[in-house]
Amino acid sequence: MRRLAAFAPLFALAACGPHAAPVAKAGPVRIMSMNPCIDAILVRVADPGEIASISHYSHDPAATSIPIAQAMRFPANAGTAEEVVATRPGIVLLGAHGDPATQAAIRAAGVAVVTVGVPATVAESLDQIRTVARVAGHPERGEALVREIEAALAAARPAPGWRAIDALIRQGSGLVPGTGTLADELLGRTGFRNMSADYGLAMWDVLPLEPLIARPPKLLLMDLTEHRGPPGLLARVPDMRIADFSERLLQCAGPNLIDVARRLAEIRRQLSNPSPSGEGLGWGVWPRDTRFMRNAVSRRQPPPPSPPLKGRGYAANMGVVP
């Protein structure tokens, strides 16, 4: 949850703003990135010698959106104007939600600033890649990365006639991406229907366990890494399958879209051809085990009773009908 807390504003998913105009100069330019999502694009479109530093979050294994070994090749910055003055890069790339005082101080130091927003759609993400590539002076590399992402998305599309599977992504503390988010578009592109609106949720909203158990989706996507442990009561909900979906996949767009598309396509294929073997609670894809596991106990015992929603505010607030 450290990354989620640090980048909660990213979940607003605002599009690239007008301040993201290309400013590349003739010849190499040293670029300082103060945003880990920008880092992930920059290391793909710039030469190593053109990168003055990247965000310190990219040096954190729990927060980085690029391979940690690759990130450690570059100096890290803490996003301060003082570091910019000391480093004297040609351009500083900032996220749209950076500190205004820091931005003003950087500009006052005579360093060019390019503000890059957070894409709400695949198209906006591809435009963001093109922007960063132009700033780095390598637009052709941006186009190459765009083609790679488009190819991954095309390969992840279901076959014609596929009936979308009702699914829900639920992150730590019950955070759910809703209609109008990038995650929502990616679900639709890969053969799923985001059930968020069925619960009356906003773009990014919290869904407690009670309404989820009362009206479960066919597929629940959640992070099942070891430190989180098994999903508890959710694993005993009948007729609901659980698939491991790392929260890292939604931390950034850019090159990360390739991993998201491949993971969602893999899950869809496993749903189409589940393994009849395996043991465990409920149906699920557990860490390091890609089998869908059926629990005989859950078939012998009745499911837990649906929690009472009336009088608790869930029906009114989330559109859940008991």
Describe the structure.
The chain is α/β, with parallel strands linked by helices. The chain is built from twelve helices and twelve strands. The protein has helices at 2-6, 36-45, 68-71, 81-87, 100-108, 122-136, 139-155, 182-189, 209-214, 256-272, 296-300, 314-318, and strands spanning 31-33, 51-55, 76-77, 91-95, 112-116, 165-169, 175-177, 192-194, 204-206, 219-222, 241-244, 283-284. A five-stranded parallel sheet has the order 3-2-1-4-5, sandwiched between helices. The chain has a five-stranded parallel sheet with strand order 8-6-10-11-12. The longest helix is centred in the middle third of the chain and has 17 residues, at 139-155.
Q: What features would you highlight for this structure?
A:
alpha/beta, Rossmann fold, 2 domains, single chain, 12 strands, disordered N terminus, five-stranded parallel sheet, 322 residues
**Helix-strand sequence:** HEHEHEHEHEHHEEHEEHEEHEHH
CATH-level-4 superfamily name of the largest domain: Nitrogenase molybdenum iron protein domain
| Strand composition percent | 5-15%
How helical, in percent, are the residues?
25-40%
CATH architecture of the largest domain: 3-Layer(aba) Sandwich
Distance between the termini: 31 Å
**Global outline:** elongated
**SS-based class:** alpha/beta
Strand order of the largest sheet: 3-2-1-4-5
Assembly state (oligomeric): single chain
The tally of domains stands at: 2
Number of helices: 12
Might you state the CATH topology name of the largest domain? Answer: Rossmann fold
